[in-house]
Design brief:
Distance between the termini of chain A: 48 Å
Shape of chain A: elongated
Number of strands of chain B: 0
Radius of gyration of chain B: 26 Å
Number of helices of chain B: 18
Order of helices and strands of chain B: HHHHHHHHHHHHHHHHHH
Distance between the termini of chain B: 68 Å
Strand content of chain A: under 5%
Number of helices of chain A: 20
Strand content of chain B: under 5%
Oligomer: heterodimer
């Protein structure tokens, strides 16, 4: 099947072999498992799942990411993932082809309208009917370039003042100068709110209407930005007094919006309280960066758009997505693991982790279902007369003759398919994670240009590709076992399922670790 | 009085109000007299009490973990478990996922098997079990009966209020905050009173009960002022000035706005300063002095230029544009000219 093999190529996987007969299949599998005459290709195909030790190491690192996820730790992680594969294949070449993720092509190089990370059908023979990608409505990417945070949203014209009023004031008072950086001390460090207040044209309004406050959450609106920050801090702030204050801002509470001071007065009041909320959190600049990260809502659409462009090349991987989105990241300069941090930095980093979670779509890791064989045949009936009647009935109703041999239990295709579908969904989820990590890095670069997150992306990409390969290999084995007698496959199918599950768990931890490491870029 | 008796006295003193000062003095005195080698148990108890007096300080938090290792080495099991539970509670209140679950679970099991530290283990567990937190906290409150633990009760009540609000039990939430206020008042502790009154005021504001909220916020504002707590002054004064302005209580609204100017400038919260100027300008406008209202804003814009974020100046400009729209361009421009002349003359 064209798509299947094409996508396999993009994933750097060996071509799937033609289905074997039952007679051929079993000895082949058995032989390879016993380790006799392992060719490089066979070794690669039978590359076992990442060892438990590596997964444990991954878990351990993730749980203490704020203490150890430095550049060195990232390197160790990637090396461990690679080593765990190598350890099991002494003597076999493990040079993997250049793995490419994503694609969304139809095999002839023509793009199809599916998510850029989707790999199409991974398991199945060339004789299978090629799956038709469900055409999705092309969504115009929300390309609001707020990299410089200068973008202005559109406003209801009826609400805005005529331009001549503000132009008149601008002429009289002159253009507003930027604050000098050396004056940024105390609460002036908290600048997340300022992005919504860059244009006096948006601040002055005809009147402060209560109904216009409903769902005022545009993060570039003078009041909407405050409420958006309030919503984020109301849930995610580390301190309970901050959360309580933020909830009043998120409303916003009507008491904060008296008509006597107009729209500008309300915006000033809310801005002042937003600064207080950030100050209550006590995180300093990392806290402010985390809040800005939570409002970097254009990062995900930018990553999707860049991934869409890269899908044609099959290189939907985080580092390249970031570059395609026009952002650059630095390598970490740390050579020693950083094991201690300040409470202030920890506050910002923890908030940053929650900020990244808030700007990325919620998408759980697919569950690999259990493999169930057909039920075993019913035990023979003890009563000989009853057994004779039963046998007779079975023969008359088109069943087997009493002289037939008992049917073998086989691995049926309809039992395997849900697992193969879940494996495909898992590989797709890994592709999506590449875009998510890229979006997180894009947000970080926009909030804090030059942040050292490149090595995190590179190593996460490598580890994720290893995991994807592992899932596909297990899927291949399972697919090849379809129709094989239970006696012949032994526990290979269940080991494949277990391998996929371990890969899914490791992937989940890897994704979280990577996001945590990116959030640490807020203070590194 | 021997050291043992003094330690018991220290442990019986509430860490609130004037008793807190006495406790601090006693802690300093005991620290000089207790020899950790000769009386390790007393030294550990002193460290625990010190931590309870300022649980959010990173210094005491670090001291506690050192003391915990010491207690483990020398076999002071009760103190060790207590310190583990206190550490987990303190860290977990801010960073629940930073609490090492194995340590917490082991400490909880040890406390349960010893049949002591009933409140402590529940409070520690509540930080990592959000779905069960209010039950655990309520059970802990029942066990925190000594006045010496009233400071902990206040914290627990405020946490409980948040649990209840999250579950939409707004009545229960208000009651918990009110209980915290009562306790703080009982001990006449200005910091705890200010914090709990502010929480109560904001909770009432969210429910639209502005009159009730105003009363509590006014008290919190006065306490914040007397304690020279600028952050609390801005937090309480901001809604208060808006409510009073809307009610037409210009004198009080103006006084609070003036205070916002001072506290805002001291903290470099320039939006609070701008809010103070806009409030003052609105008061002048309401008293039929549009020239003074405009002058106030122009003066602020001129004085604050380059010293404050451009966003703060933009707010002043936006407000001036709103005034021009409200009173008409011709009239506004006349007043504006007069205002500028006055400003230059001064």
């Amino acid at each position: 099947m064209a798509i299947s093999q094409e996508q396999r190529k993009k994933l750097g996987l060996p071509h799937q072999e033609a289905p074997q007969t039952d007679h051929d299949r079993t000895p082949d599998l058995e032989r390879v498992e016993e380790g006799q005459e392992i060719s490089a290709d066979a070794a690669e195909r039978l590359q076992p799942q990442m060892g438990n030790s590596a997964i444990q190491a991954l878990l351990a690192r993730t749980s203490s990411s704020t203490q150890s996820s430095t550049g060195t730790a990232e390197l160790d992680l990637a090396e461990e993932v690679g080593q765990s594969e190598e350890e099991d294949f002494e003597g076999g070449s493990l040079d993997m082809p250049n793995v490419e993720m994503g694609g969304g092509g139809d095999g002839d190089g023509n793009p199809i309208e599916i998510a850029p990370w989707e790999v199409g059908r991974l398991f199945g023979g060339d004789d299978d009917a090629p799956p038709k990608p469900t055409p999705k409505r092309k969504r115009k990417p929300v390309n609001r370039n707020f990299a410089d945070e200068e973008g202005a949203p559109t406003y209801d014209d009826e609400d805005l003042l005529p331009d001549d009023h503000i132009d008149h004031i601008e002429t009289r008072l002159g253009e507003t100068p930027r604050m000098r950086e050396e004056f940024r001390s105390g609460d002036a460090r908290y600048r997340a709110i300022e992005t919504g207040l860059l244009k006096p044209h948006a601040i002055g309004r005809r009147e402060l209407k209560p109904e216009s406050m409903v769902d005022r959450t545009d993060h570039l609106d003078p009041i909407g930005r405050s409420t958006a920050i309030g919503r984020f801090l109301g849930v995610s702030a580390n301190r309970s007094d901050t959360r309580a204050l933020a909830r009043s801002i998120a409303g916003p509470a009507s008491a904060l919006l008296p008509s006597t001071t107009g729209h500008a007065g309300a915006a000033a009041r809310l801005a002042s309280l937003v600064v207080c909320a950030e100050a209550s959190e006590e995180g300093g600049i990392p806290t402010d960066n985390a809040v800005r990260l939570a409002l970097c809502l254009d990062a995900w659409p930018s990553a999707i758009e860049a991934a869409g462009r890269l899908a044609k090349t099959g290189r939907v991987v985080a580092p390249e997505i970031v570059e395609a989105a026009g952002e650059s990241l630095e390598e970490t300069t740390l050579t020693e693991p950083r094991t201690h941090t300040t409470t202030e930095a920890l506050t910002g980093v923890k908030l940053g982790q929650k900020a990244l979670a808030s700007i990325l779509p919620e998408s759980p890791v697919p569950t690999i279902p259990s493999l169930e064989f057909a039920p075993p045949p019913a035990p023979p009936i003890q009563d000989s007369a009853l057994a004779a009647v039963d046998a007779l009935l079975e023969e008359y109703t088109g069943g087997r003759a009493p002289s037939d041999l008992p049917q073998e239990r086989r691995l049926q295709a309809d039992r395997v398919q849900p697992i193969l579908d879940a494996a495909t969904a898992l590989v797709n989820r890994m592709g999506q994670a590449q875009v998510e990590l890229a979006a997180a890095a894009i947000a970080l670069a926009r909030v804090r240009p030059g942040s050292p997150a490149r090595s995190t992306l590179v190593h996460a990409d490598q580890a994720m590709r290893e995991l994807a390969r592992s899932v596909v290999r297990h899927g291949d084995r399972l697919h090849r076992s379809t129709g094989a007698p239970l006696m012949a496959t032994n526990d290979l199918p269940s080991r494949s399922v277990q391998g996929m599950r371990e890969a899914a768990a490791a992937f989940d931890e890897l994704r979280q670790w990577s996001l945590n490491a990116i959030a640490e870029g807020l203070y590194r | 009085m021997n050291l043992q008796r003094e330690m018991e006295r220290l442990e019986a003193l509430p860490l609130l109000g004037t008793n807190r000062v006495k406790a601090q003095e006693l802690m300093d005195s005991l620290a000089l007299r207790i020899d950790p080698n000769a009386q390790p148990e007393l030294a550990l108890r002193l460290l625990i009490r010190r931590f309870e007096a300022s649980p959010t300080s990173s210094t005491t938090l670090a001291q506690l973990s050192t003391a915990e290792s010491w207690a483990a080495r020398d076999g002071f099991e009760h103190e060790r478990v207590r310190m583990q539970l206190l550490w987990c509670t303190s860290v977990g209140r801010q960073f629940p996922d930073a609490v090492p679950r194995t340590v917490l679970d082991e400490a909880v099991r040890a406390a349960q098997s010893m049949g002591t530290l009933e409140a402590e283990w529940r409070l520690a567990l509540a930080t990592v079990q959000p779905t069960n937190a209010s039950t655990l906290r309520l059970e802990a409150l029942d066990r925190l009966t000594s006045p010496a633990s009233d400071s902990v009760r206040i914290t627990v009540l405020l946490d409980l209020a948040e649990d209840k609000a999250r579950g939409s039990d707004h009545g229960g939430s208000l009651k918990a905050i009110q209980d915290a206020v009562n306790l703080a008042e009982q001990h006449k502790d200005p910091k705890a009173m200010c914090e709990s009154l502010t929480r109560l005021g904001y909770a009432l504001l969210n429910q639209g009960k502005h009159d009730l909220a105003t009363r509590h916020l006014q008290r919190a504002f006065e306490l914040a002022r007397s304690e020279e707590n600028d952050l609390a002054t801005v937090i309480t004064g901001t809604p208060l000035s808006a409510i009073l302005l809307e009610r037409g209580d210009m004198e009080q609204a103006g006084a609070i706005a003036d205070r916002l100017l001072i506290s805002g400038a001291r903290r470099a919260n320039w939006f609070a300063v701008v809010n103070g100027h806009i409030t003052r300008s609105a008061i002048l406008l309401a008293s039929d002095d549009p020239t003074a209202a405009i002058e106030r804003l122009v003066r602020a814009a001129v004085h604050l230029r380059e010293l404050v974020p451009a966003a703060a100046i933009n707010l002043l400009k936006g407000r001036l544009a709103e005034l021009r729209h409200t009173i008409g361009p011709a009239v506004f421009d006349d007043h504006y000219r007069t205002a500028v002349e006055r400003h230059r003359a001064s």
